[in-house]
Amino acid sequence: TVFAIVRFTAALVDLQTIIASADEAVGDNYWILRSYRTAATPNMSIVQRNADIVDEVRGGTVLVAGSVYLQMARSSGTAYQLRLDGADEVLTVVSGADNGDWLGDATLRDSFSLGGLKLTSETQFLKGDLGEVIMYDTGLSAADITRVETYLNDRWAAF
Question: What is the spatial distance between Cα 21 and Cα 108, in angstroms, rounded to a whole number?
Answer without folding.
Answer: 10
